[in-house]
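Incident log, support desk, overnight shift.

02:14 A customer reports that sequence design results differ from what the structure should imply. Their input is reproduced verbatim below. On-call engineer (initials T.W.) acknowledged and began investigating.
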């Protein structure tokens, strides 16, 4: 693992990835709760080609793979995510219930993959909440609040929560006639 060009740790990719994620988690309010009837067993950030990574470029696609285990028979299951910006504010959230994806709930292991086509986010560290609930949201089986972190890198100096592609051109001034209903000054 490198920090500012200096080797800080050596080891297997798995070991280094876990250490990297633990360092990044410092700023988010990690918390977990739920009944435990179903549990999140693994969450991975993948690029468009299915490679695991923790840092993404502006507008790059991301897949979030959520593995879970249903420990005993439950009536229904919704799997959800919520992204948080570097200041801990909600940016985007969805779940299988909102997208009308029915999960055939069986005791045992299952997985859901969320495909985010692009990430129009400003540079920084982003938190991810993953939740397993009943489809009527009355039961929380496992909720991991801001448990996972990924990073967005790009060279923008723009401000705000999202980065909207914007082209600016210097142009010749023009005199325009007011539109109908517009107040004419002068």
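02:41 Re-run completed on a clean worker. Output:
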């Amino acid at each position: 693992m490198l920090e500012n060009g200096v080797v800080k740790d050596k080891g297997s990719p798995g070991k280094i990835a876990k250490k990297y994620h633990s360092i990044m988690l410092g700023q988010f309010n990690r918390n977990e709760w739920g009944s435990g009837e179903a549990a999140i067993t693994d969450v991975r950030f993948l690029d468009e080609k299915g490679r695991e990574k923790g840092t993404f470029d502006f507008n790059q696609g991301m897949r979030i793979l959520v593995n879970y285990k249903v420990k005993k028979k439950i009536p229904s299951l919704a799997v959800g995510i919520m992204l948080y910006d570097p200041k801990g504010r909600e940016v985007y959230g969805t779940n299988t219930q909102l997208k009308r994806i029915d999960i055939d709930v069986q005791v045992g292991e299952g997985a859901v993959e969320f495909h985010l086509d692009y990430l129009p986010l400003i540079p920084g560290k982003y938190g991810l909440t993953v939740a397993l609930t009943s489809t009527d949201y009355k039961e929380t089986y496992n909720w991991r609040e801001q448990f996972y972190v990924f990073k967005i890198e790009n060279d923008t100096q723009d401000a705000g929560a999202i980065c909207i592609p914007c082209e600016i051109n210097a142009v010749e001034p023009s005199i325009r006639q007011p539109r109908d209903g517009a107040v004419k000054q002068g």
